[in-house]
Amino acid sequence: MAVTRCSGYTAEFDRVTREEWSSLLRLFDDATIIQTWDFPESVCPGQQVSRLVLRRGEEVVALAQARIVATPLIARGIAYVAWGPLWRRQGRAPSLEIFDAALAALQNEFVERRKLLLRISPNIVGSEFPEARRMLAERGFSKARQAGDYRTIMIDISVPLPEVRGNLERTRRQHLANAERTALEVRQGTALDYYEKFKTVYRAHLSRKGLLTDVDIGRWEKLQETLPEIEKPQILVACDRGEAVGAFVVSCLGGTSFPIAVAATEAGLKANASPLLYWRALEWLKGEGCRTYDMGGIDPEGNPGGYQFKKGFGGKDVTFIGTFEECRNALSRGVVSLSEPMYTLAKRLARVRKSRLFSRGEGG
């Protein structure tokens, strides 16, 4: 546990309890499920975790949760802050000074004191805060070459719902209206029986498309089970005469939704289950106080069909500032440079094995 003071800020590492962290998380507009206490243990087991609480006087102004992978004995490796630091308090004007102070605190702890490679992926849309890139560069961060930028469609849901619906492309409005006239029933909740329905639809979705994925839905199921009720993602299931034909899992902790997965069976595809689920999720998110609806990432070249579907909801095409890293220790740099290609190779081999099982009907 460490406490450091600099330029009017106090940085506290690993002094907060689970309950305190959960309460603090809900104060931030840029919070996501990635920064919840239970996420690392459930979705990324085997990694160490370190948490920053940054104060200005008595007020908490920033948070960050770092996942650490380091070699035994010499303790060299990487500290990764995903979708952080959190620095935008709800109901207050964003201050990039706080973002910069959080960067300084993370550098002091992980780069200087622990001598690790520090990698961060801020939850920042590039067009909203272009100065953030300059601040990162001035602090010595460089763009991580192996990480692509997150690009997505963002929908403003702070306006009235009729206006949001009016912004949908004509085809998308027709598909939604057709789905609303069918026998589809949308049920939603956070209990594990909803997650079981999602898993059934998700596996059928992968089989229908002939897709393989590195996503371990079992780990996400564990997260669904362990999170406090107020932090659990909402699971929406579209049913046709009692049979689940579509499912959507979405989280809302801050001002922007965090989409986790959407899937549909062949029957769900024909019944336009996906547009209906997206719309019902949007209605729920707005009711929860969410102001921006993230459609879940786009790749116009690699997945043009998915891009056109999401573009039809009339949102704004945005790109986040990306992933940055800094390291002043040659040993940590070497450990990461050697281990990451090995990890990538292991994933490829696992994918090949899974593909063979899938082709024999043993996968999924």
UniProtKB/TrEMBL annotation:
Keyword check for Transferase: yes
A GO term, aspect molecular function = aminoacyltransferase activity
Provide the N-acetyltransferase domain boundaries: 11-162
- Pfam families registered for this protein in UniProt: Acetyltransf_6
* Family (UniProt): Belongs to the FemABX family.
Q: Which keywords appear in this protein's UniProt record, sorted alphabetically?
A: Acyltransferase, Cell shape, Cell wall biogenesis/degradation, Peptidoglycan synthesis, Transferase
Source species of the chain: Geobacter pickeringii
Q: What is this protein called?
A: N-acetyltransferase domain-containing protein
Indicate yes or no for the key word ATP-binding: no
Q: Name one GO biological process term.
A: regulation of cell shape
